Structures are given as C-alpha cells and as structure tokens.
Amino acid sequence: MMRAVVVEKFGPIDSHGVGELPSPSLRANEVLVSIKACAVNFVDLLVINGKYQFLPDRPFAPGKLPVGVVTKTGPGVHQISMGERVLTLAEHGGYAEEIAVPVSQCFRLPNSMSFTDAAAITLSYDTAWFALRERGRLQAGESVLVLGASGAVGRASIQIAKSMGARVFAGLSNPKKLELIRDYSVEGVIDLSQPDLHNSLREQVYAQNNGIGVDLVIDPVGGDAFDAALRALAWCGRIVIVGFVSGRIPLIKANYLLLKNIEASGLQISDYRKKKPELMAKCINDIFQLYDDGKLKVPATTTYKLDQFKTAMHEIENRTVPNRLVLLPNG
Predict the structure, then answer these.
(1) Is residue 295 part of a domain?
(2) Sign of CA dihedral 319, 321, 322, 327
(3) Are β-strands 106-108 and 98-102 bridged in parallel, bridged antiparallel, or unpaired?
(4) At 12, phi and psi to the nearest 5?
(5) DSSP H or E stretch at residue 43
(6) Tens digits of per-residue pLDDT, 23-42?
(7) Using one digit for the tens of pLDDT, what is the confidence trace for 255-293?
(8) By CB distance 3.0 to 4.6 Å, which of 110, 126, 217, 243 could disulfide with 239?
(9) 127 and 52 Cβ atoms separated by less than 8 Å
(10) In the prediction, which pLDDT does 280 show?
(11) 199 and 63 assigned to the same domain
C-alpha cells in the first residue's frame, strides 16, 4: 500500500483525505516512479468535484503530470533506466507516493532542473505552448494579449510568446499584480478593472498597439474579459479559449467572427497527450530547452507536504497565493 490523497466520492475539498491506495502494479512498457513533486492546479478542483471532462474510476488520487525518480522498469523498457529523473504525463495520480506510467509518457528532466521547478512548469507551460503555437499559430512580430497574465498560464504565455518574437500585452484584473510580471518585459499592460470594460479594453489596446487590435488573444479567464477582448482583435485575429476562471462561460455571436474574419478556438490539452504524442514530445522538449537556455523565469513556488493538500487546494480555490503551489508526496 502507499499513502495518497484518496477520492472515494466526488465532492468539495474537505470531503477528501489522505489515506492508502494499492501500490501500483507494473505492466510491460511501464516504469514505476517515486513521486517527488506534483503541482496543485485549478483543474484538480474540477476533477475532485466531478466537474472535469475526463474523470477517473474511483477511488483515485488526483494530481496531473507528477515528477520523480524511476525506481523500477517493466518488461520491454529500454529507453529509461532506474534512477533517472523524469516528468510524467499522467492524467491523475500525482497526489501519491508512487505511480506507474507508460515509458512513452516519461521525459528526462534537464540536469539543471529541480523537481520543484519541473512541477511548477507542468500544465501551465505546455498549455501556453499549445495555445500559442498550435491553436494560435503565432508568428514572430505579431501582437498578443494575454488575459489573466499574473496566473500560471498567463505568465507562461508571456514568456513563450516573447521567446517566439511576439509583442506581448498583459491583461490584469488587479493592477497590484503587476509586480508578478514586472521582469517579463511586456510591451504594455491592459487594466481589466477599468469601468466599461466592453469599450475600455479595446481603447487601451488601440492606444498601446499603434491604433490597431492585437493578432492573438490567449484567454484562461472567460466572462466579461472574453467579451471585451473579442472586440480588441485585429482583422484576421485569433482568440484561443483556455479556461473560465471568472466562472462565466461566454457566448459568441457568429456574425461578429464573420465581419472581422476572426477565429475563436479552444484548447483542451489532455487530448493532445492522447491523440498527438509526437507533438506533445516536441512541446516538452522545447520547454526544457528554453529552461536550459535561461529563457524561462519559473514562478516562485510554495511547497506542501501531502498532509497539507487541503490548505494548498483551498488557496487555489480562493486565489489567495500568487506562487505556484507544489505538493511533495515523499518529502
């Protein structure tokens, strides 16, 4: 048996606790990983409440993309050896001491990358990479508005967009959070707390972007910010929908897309892990290379022991901590 956060029935944070689950059994082409770190993400709240698109069989441990050390290899595994440090693409199971994953879903960590840093970049930097490169088709020299810029996906999107040669504008709902992105060299800040956001967002973009709209919007926020950002797109602009942390799922009038030749697309990154593993591998390797080249500023992290998972999840729920939150199941 192993210690884990156990979800027996879907429900709120306080309805779950630390208990025991069977230790993973190892099958052919799988490796056993001792989990050293796993990020706590907003999506974990959706999973434990039964509100996510893909739900595991119960009982289970939540936690996506844990990192750790390979402690055992199954038959047919030749690519990775025991003792190697890896990022896994596991869809759940990270809030536990161990996990078994297919070797094809493991990536060696750069020697310069700590377990905590590896956990901190998971799910946010790969989401940003796919939003910008795959869904948004960003080109060097284009302009990007990143909504929710102080959040995990927002900060990752700023950095990756800058590495691609884009001009980046940061959308902040709280101007006090400017400090979180002060070192990111954005071209401008769009204040989402201004009155009459429907008009003021576009006015701010035009004022800071040479009188025109932006080529691409990355939106993990939804709600009023999405409605206003749609109006701030340039001709043939694109908006990529990543999430709805505002709580309201917006609606789009199709005629508006037609009139400006603009596109709205969604990103559900779990599907890419399942349906396009070769593209996911390119994504992870690109991110690791950017890290090794010193082009990524990993957000400050706050770490918790497994027994403290409720505290961490409540802080995600209440959006009270700007740091990335990371569980250390074996630490």
Answers:
(1) no
(2) negative
(3) unpaired
(4) -65, 170
(5) helix 42-48
(6) 999 999 999 999 999 999 99
(7) 999 999 999 999 999 899 989 999 999 999 999 999 999
(8) 217
(9) no
(10) 96
(11) no
Residue the block writes with tokens 């039964």: 50
8 Å CB contact between 65 and 109: no
Start-to-end Cα distance in the chain: 18
State how far the Cα of 105 lies from the Cα of 119, in Å rounded to an integer: 15
CATH number of the domain at 316, please. 3.90.180.10
Any idea what the CATH number is for the domain that residue 163 is in? Answer: 3.40.50.720
Answering whether pTM is above 0.90, one says yes
DSSP H helices, 193-253, are 197-208, 223-230
Class of residue 293 by CB neighbours under 10 A (exposed 0-12, middle 13-18, buried 19+): exposed
Residue 72 near residue 24, CB atoms below 8 Å: no
Residues 257-266: tens digit of each pLDDT: 999 999 999 9
Q: Is the pLDDT score of 322 beyond 90?
A: no
Q: In this structure, are 129 and 248 located in the same domain?
A: yes
Element (H, E) at 277: helix 277-292
Phi-psi category of residue 5: left, alpha or beta, with phi > 0 → left and psi -120 to 50 → alpha: beta
Count how many domains the chain has.
2
Distance CA 195, CA 197 (A): 5
Of the candidates 102, 19, 105, 124, which has an alpha carbon nearest to the alpha carbon of residue 61?
Answer: 19
Q: Note the pLDDT tens digit of each residue in 134-151.
A: 999 999 999 999 999 999
Which regions of 7-142 does DSSP assign to beta strands (E)? 17-21, 30-39, 67-73, 85-88, 98-102, 106-108
Residues 81 and 155 in one domain: no
The answer to whether the beta carbons of residues 69 and 85 sit under 8 Å apart is yes
Q: Which 3-state string (H, E, C) describes 248-273? A: CCCCCCHHHHHHHCCEEEECCHHHHH
- pLDDT tens track for 163-186: 999 999 999 999 889 998 998 999
Look at the block and give the residue holding tokens 């390979």.
70
Q: What is the mean pLDDT of residues 199-214?
A: 98
